[in-house]
Amino acid sequence: MKTREALYKETTEIMRVMAAYKTLKYHQILRLYPDKPEIVRNIISKLIQQKRIVYSDDNDILSYGDDNKQNYNRGLISAFWVLIDFIDEAEYHSPSEYPAQIAFFMNNEFYEIIYAEPEKEILINHILSANKKEQSHKIIVVENEKQIHKITAEDIVCFCIIDENGNIEYYNLE
Questions:
Q1: 143: which residues sit within 8 A by CB, 6+ positions away?
Q2: Which domain holds residue 128?
Q3: How far apart are CA 39 and CA 106, in angstroms?
Q4: How far apart are CA 124 and CA 114, in angstroms?
Q5: CA dihedral defined by 77, 83, 88, 94, rounded to 10 degrees?
Q6: Measured between alpha carbons, how far is 98 from 101 in angstroms, rounded to an integer?
Q7: Are 59 and 78 members of one domain?
Q8: How far, in Å, CA of 32 to CA of 120, rounded?
Q9: How far apart are CA 146 and CA 32, in angstroms?
Q10: 80 and 50, same structural domain?
Q11: How confident is the model at residue 75 (pLDDT cuts 50, 70, 90)?
Q12: Are both 14 and 97 inside the same structural domain?
């Protein structure tokens, strides 16, 4: 049985994540806490009842606050799937500024997860080449393999493609 203090701590953590990222998939929150699925489901249910978050059954989206018109940000949701892969090692994470969707620290190194929307590769190359002063390891999320050769920034750790269920296929540079 969970104590009130433990439930409060877990609720606070879920609300911190939702307040930071605004809109995420329901199953992403569950995957953040893989050892506590029932507890997390109960917390989410209570938060929905309290109208602190809104759930859209149409697209499995949780939105922070009582505004169910939050923008569905495919880039952020894709980047969050990648973050979940590294969450056990991530020391800190937060939303970031374009073109990065998420920034995080892991093993005392700074990483950025960048979503490369199709047909925006030139723009991303330009922005990343202009920001050479920021040393980060870059994980680039693409929609298809054809995009990989169009992105030429430095410090790219890998590319990845994510399906609708959050399954990730990683591609290393050769």
A1: 116, 117, 118, 161
A2: 74-171
A3: 27
A4: 9
A5: -90
A6: 6
A7: no
A8: 30
A9: 31
A10: no
A11: very high
A12: no
| 49 or 174, which is more confident | 49
| Count: domains in the chain | 2
Query: For residue 45, what is the domain's CATH number?
Result: 1.10.10.10
Least confident of 54-68, 137-151, 154-168: 54-68
What is the β-pairing status of strands 156-162 and 137-142? parallel
Model confidence pTM above 0.85:
yes
Tens digit of each residue's pLDDT (9 = 90 or more) over 3-52: 778 778 899 999 999 999 999 999 999 999 999 899 999 999 999 999 99
Instruction: Point out the domain boundary residue: 64, 85, 111.
Output: 64
Interhelix angle 37-49/4-21, rounded to 10 degrees, is 70
